[in-house]
Amino acid sequence: MSNLPYEPEFEQAYKELASTLENSTLFQKKPEYRKALQVVSVPERVVQFRVVWEDDNQQVQINRGYRVQFNSALGPYKGGLRFHPSVNLSILKFLGFEQIFKNALTGLNMGGGKGGSDFDPKGKSDNEIRRFCVSFMTELCKHIGADTDVPAGDIGVTGREVGFMFGQYKKIRNAWEGVLTGKGGTWGGSLIRPEATGYGVVYYVEHMIKYATEGKESFAGKRVAISGSGNVAQYAALKVIELGGSVVSLSDSQGALVLQGEEGSFTPEEINTIAAIKVERKQISELATTEAFSSKFKYIPGARPWTNITGRIDVALPSATQNEVSGDEAKALIAAGCKFIAEGSNMGSTQDAIDVFEAHRDANKSEAIWYAPGKAANAGGVAVSGLEMAQNSARVNWSREEVDTRLKNIMEDCFNNGLATAKEYATPAEGALPSLVAGSNIAGFTKVAEAMKDHGDWW
């Protein structure tokens, strides 16, 4: 690959998967899968385009737009659109690559893709965002469709942006179809979709706790550290509280808000207050100095929560962005007594952190920290996107209870599939917990590889 540009995020995601497969017995039992790994690591198609739009001062602005259509072996390309200044091809290839195997683990018929733009919605008016979305979709609509590629929202893309893009797609293509997920509830969206990733990661950890403690423990009484303050973090926090746990931190790109002392928790009302300022694209720091928050929480500028929490941590849920837990922070979590870590974000842990977690799991048997990768733990969001696609195709709307039940079942299957696969191909040491990162990687990869082989993509 020396002739290719340096793509650090994508290379990290590829090496994480490849090393897992190499360190298992998969290639010993099925050596032909090495060729499948080579094929699946190259996108089927990469679309790159310019996005020209006009700001409120009638000045022309230019951004880059992308869509990485990575793999369609299991169904239409499926994955979010991210609007953020950091967006580049490496990040989108990493996200699309992860999306292939995440979607496979849901059991739904979805391929993997990702897209977005280096456009920054922060500080923009609604009209500027609308004009950008119209220009972006004018080009993207040539490459997507309900049976081809179905994007969703991601960082910087909320229901507002999805609505603007859907409207432009409909005008140009003269078709109302389920081409985007995360739509409004009155025009094709699914109930539970905003909550799905946050709820899903908590449902996944429920099964981790149940398995590791042989059913003796649950979220009740657990102290849970969460990073981020967007949809994933908000709804994960609310579900943890509903299940009897205590939430001791939230954060954003500017700093961390951490509970003072070893007692107490964020309340649903406090989480809703944070959610409200995030809708206005404001920072947590604006709340931190108010009397209601400063008496209970400590705000730490420029920090992540993992090394700044007083007292023990039972569960950690990184739910902000990629590489938000370093090797040193992984050691700090272990020192704080953390027993379960599951990624609400994509590739939330660096490779150094994963190595720390996996080494501790191997060495400390049932008392170890147990790590769940994002491709398994945060699959709830895309799972409900898949359920939204199904509802659109059938022109029906399922109740909140039905969608939530299906989400719970998908997350349980996701956990059990990774667990069983780890036991088969990455047999743990006696008394040690199985590797969920190995099991999830192998389960997702083998499902996609078999479909590609049936299609003649490798042989």
TrEMBL record:
Cellular component, GO annotation: cytosol
Residues at the active site: 114
Annotated ranges, domain Glutamate/phenylalanine/leucine/valine/L-tryptophan dehydrogenase C-terminal: 190-456
PROSITE patterns in the record: GLFV_DEHYDROGENASE
Gene Ontology terms for molecular function: glutamate dehydrogenase (NADP+) activity; nucleotide binding
Site (Important for catalysis): 154
Domain of life: Eukaryota
Catalytic activity, as annotated: L-glutamate + NADP(+) + H2O = 2-oxoglutarate + NH4(+) + NADPH + H(+)
Keyword Transmembrane helix: no
Binding of NAD(+), residues: 197, 231
Binding-site positions, substrate: 78, 99, 102, 153, 385
InterPro entries: Aminoacid_DH-like_N_sf (IPR046346), Glu/Leu/Phe/Val/Trp_DH (IPR006095), Glu/Leu/Phe/Val/Trp_DH_C (IPR006096), Glu/Leu/Phe/Val/Trp_DH_dimer (IPR006097), Glu/Leu/Phe/Val_DH_AS (IPR033524), Glu_DH (IPR014362), Glu_Leu_Phe_Val_DH (IPR050724), NAD(P)-bd_dom_sf (IPR036291)
NCBIfam families: PRK09414.1
PANTHER family to which the protein is assigned, alphabetical: NADP-SPECIFIC GLUTAMATE DEHYDROGENASE 1-RELATED
Assembly and binders: Homohexamer.
Protein name stated in the entry: Glutamate dehydrogenase
Species per Swiss-Prot/TrEMBL record: Penicillium olsonii
